[in-house]
Design brief:
34% of the residues are buried. Helices cover 77% and strands 0% of the residues. By secondary structure, the protein is mostly helical.
């Protein structure tokens, strides 16, 4: 348990850094960020917490004091990848989800200026005029609803949403690969179903 407490302390530091990066990135020029920057931030915000849960749960279940034992490491990597995919799906739902199910207005991430993979990939595919329009709406809390709706349409048309969905699917496939060598049990089946839910959920 002492090892797990020490591990959780390191996780807390990363969580705080991830939240700080999210705020910092929203104030940075989009062109200064890469997809890898955003994915690293998502891992620190969410993936690492899932990874901790997988690692700690596996260690307790296996009654192992070795937090880097092969089976523990596999479940940690599985959980961390699922957590990052969960966050990517969260970004998708923030653009095209149902406001009632989400509990927040669709497009609020746009008004807040969130730097997401959706935004980065879409901007890369936009014309100069579309890009100027998008940057004028992104991070503007006073942007008219019709402008937010138009930008949402552009994010879909220019491929940012589908690119992000595909990236989340790839992460889940990689995560499931971590489970493949483990014995086939009802528990493994539950983990596989849970992984698929990370990107199938609508809220």
């Amino acid at each position: 348990m002492n090892l797990i407490r020490e591990l959780f302390h390191r996780v807390q530091v990363n969580l705080l850094q991830g939240e700080a990066l999210d705020i910092r990135y929203s104030q940075m020029p989009v062109e200064d960020l890469t997809q890898q920057d955003v994915l690293q931030m998502l891992w620190q915000k969410t993936g690492i917490l899932y990874e901790f849960a997988g690692r700690a749960g596996a260690a307790i279940g296996l009654r192992s004091a070795d937090l880097s034992a092969p089976e523990v490491e596999r479940l940690a990597q599985f959980s961390g990848q699922c957590g990052t995919a969960f966050q990517l799906q969260d970004d998708v739902l923030g653009i095209v989800g149902d406001a009632k199910q989400l509990g927040k207005p669709v497009g609020s991430d746009i008004r807040e200026g969130k730097r997401t993979v959706i935004v980065l990939e879409s901007l890369r595919q936009m014309s100069a005029a579309e890009r100027d329009f998008a940057l004028g709406v992104l991070g503007n809390p006073l942007a008219p609803p019709e402008d937010v709706s138009e930008l949402i349409g552009l994010l879909e048309q220019r491929g940012g949403l589908e690119h992000t969905r595909q990236l989340a699917r790839q992460m889940i496939e990689q995560a499931l690969g971590q489970l493949a060598p483990l014995p086939q049990t009802p528990q493994r089946d539950h983990l596989q179903a849970w992984a698929h839910y990370m990107i199938a959920r609508e809220f």
